[in-house]
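Hi R.,

As promised, here are both runs. First protein below:
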Amino acid sequence: MDIRARLHEDIAARREDLIALTQDLIRIPTLNPPGANYREICDYLDRRLLRAGFHTELIRAEGAIGDSDKHPRWNIVARREGKAPGQCVHFNSHIDVVEVGHGWTTDPFGGEVKEGRIYGRGACDMKGGLAASIIAAEAFIATCPDYAGAIEISGTADEESGGFGGVAYLAEQGYFERVQHVIIPEPLNKDRICLGHRGVWWAEVETKGEIAHGSMPFLGDCAVRHMGAVVAEMEDSLFPALARKRTEMPVVPEGARQSTLNINSIHGGEPEQEEDYTGMPSACVPDRCRMVIDRRFLIEEDIDEVQAEIRAVLERVRDGRPGFDYELKELFRVLPTMTERDAPVVGAVSRAVESVMGREADYVVSPGTYDQKHIDRIGRLKNCIAYGPGVLDLAHKPDEWVGIEDMMQSAEVMALALHELLGG
């Protein structure tokens, strides 16, 4: 029996284990923010991976953005050495999930199995991918016990909020210096290899006014109206200009092959009161209004140009609006990244996809950033891709799900890639 058939047979025997593992992970509500239950899920993974012969480390990202005694940023890194020296393949998955939101018809943390799918927040993004990588590693170890090199599996914090308490922290501590290949099982579809992502620039715009009694607004200056003028200028000039910018990067979906801007939030006037407050608001003209923007840019664009476009919008508003004043503050930036198609990990996964699915893999780029940015920029490791089960469009949506058969096939692809990269 050839290696592909042996791995297929072993993974098929682990089907129920894969389902149960995915359900267990979904049932730990690792919501971020605030960063809940990180230690609980790391302890669960620790027990699982110790049984499979891995050496494990639980690492708190002390001092990182988001880390606190109330919500510590815990990560796990597990490593299993082979029979001989060789290279290291690292599977990295984030353990955090976004807020539940409205519109669910299933229990978001129930892990319900229905018609070949497992439902729950994080099922697709990306606890299904984490489970598939564990099953892949365990099947490969059982089938090829004499492999050379090492296998690593990590579960890391805070990818949904930038990854600074997770992969960025590990990269800063040198954990990727011993790694040659990284596969991140993000949900980009089982027959796609994701080479990288667009860039992102988050910024905060604050418009300024003057507080006054709400019955005499002419004695004050409304910062919210000033912000309205900013939004109007964006609608008139910036959004059309961004829609005309196109990239050669194979970004999916099609709409993300242009530059985009999302207005993430606008806050002006009095702060929101506690839910149990039953009084009325006070009558005041707002003297401050803040807007957070999320600008996604292309590999063909320069970060200085991206910033200059926003400042130009604000200056045009200033020129035409008496009393207008603003502050612009950068929150964070990530430059675009894209691994070369001839990189070793790309070739290994590509050949595995073709072997398992009988068709060539598609090469794509993610519309949003993920933890490849830190492995690339801080870890200095270019040989990194995202590959995993799940439909990208389901991420962060109600009734999120991952297909069981998709996880099975993705696990087989990962196991075959391990065989090519590590032998055995």
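And here is the second one, sequence first, then its structure tokens:
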Amino acid sequence: MEEPNCERDTPRMNKYACACAVIASMVSIIFGYDTGVMSGAMIFIKEDLKINDTQLEVLAGILNLCALVGSLCAGRTSDYVGRRYTIVISSVIFMLGSILMGYGPNFAVLMVGRCTAGFGVGFALTIAPVYSAEISSASSRGFLSSLPELCISLGILIGYVSNYFFAKLTLKLGWRLMLGIAAIPSLALAFGILKMPESPRWLVLQGRLREAKEVLLKVCNSKDEADNRLRDIKTAAGINENCTQENFVSLHQKSRGKGVWKELILRPSPPVRWMLLASIGIHFFEHATGIEAVVLYSPRIFKAAGVTSKNKLLLTTIGVGVTKAFFIFVAAFLLDKVGRRPLLLFSVGGMFFSLIGLGFGLTMIGHSGDHNLNWAITLSIITIYAYVAFFNIGLCPVTWVYSSEIFPSRLRAQAFGIGVAVNRATNATVSMSFISIYKAITIGGAFFMFAGISLVAWFFFYFFFPETKGRALEEMEEIFTKTTRRDATNAAGIQLSGTTHG
């Protein structure tokens, strides 16, 4: 008889684990703030520093390119120094970037600050979801691992509000305060995170069993749950589950990140290959389906849809931010109840139909040349909000939750970093090419293109994504092993059938 899994039988969320995940996710608020505030600050930067549109595009896009490098470094760093200290490092990098941008006497210094902040973004996006996943129980992991995305949305809204208030100051002071003020919460967060416990899974991989048990006793609701989780983690790390040496266990090879790339890229096992494909795929499709075009260029899209008043453009753009934050908040509570897979398929299906409607509405307005085509204007506005809602209730949070939980502990941080690098590269590509794309194939055609990509994404998720809701992190390899075995069996059956008929 199978022994009951204590994590599945404990639906009550642990308050201490929740507090740790919230603090770890706060670094994402700073990233979201930097993203949101830059959209308004660029108006004043252009006027003050006398830079051209090409320099502005580089300033906006360089953050994601530097985040790509940061995400690849963060995984190895967290394997070496631990998850907690890696979050501290990301906060310090953010602080330095904010100080440089706030100082910003010229374009060169501003770019250095933006690059530094981008490097910190890569660290933050990689480590916050990994830490939250490793500190959580299976019953609350979806909610806690989605907190970084919720914090990014809140940060973006705070950035919009800062734009409004700091814009009232002088030209030279206003935009510098917009960008530089983020250094204050970055410093406070760096000190606050030092009070958090280390990830128990990382501690076990270092052989520090006593410390891991102490952490688990705090983040679990009972001693039995802590013992069961410790037993599962030890087994996954190759330590005998009956090992009674609690202070320190000398492992043959501590997890310092060595050999991970070989196991991920050069000689992956079938389940690890499947996990990596799933992680890279979902990070690619998160941005290839067009969300960055809508968030960054929503004023242009609304203007193309017939909204010409500046006040109305501002209100409709803020509405996109509010919609984003609200539906991520709703999704956080649904992930552990509905499951990752149903939310993902529902989300991408809704995005497909919303993009079709948006492309049709914008195409009709473009061909008619009449911004008084009220039904097409209404359709375009409704479908923009619908698209943002569908994206944020599924694809957005599931991307980060799913890819942070599926990998074995020894691979998790660096494998997740690869996914984040793909995410940032796709983000940068879309954000820096959208204007060129819609000028080449019309703005309506651009959204028809994103609709086509969404349809491909739906089939990818349908065939390649097993459900992970309520399963312990140590069970993920088993889930993907069963998936690969089933596919191999089906392929063998098809081949045998073809041979028989032949």
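A quick note on the second one: The longest helix spans residues 15-49. Let me know what you think.

Best,
J.
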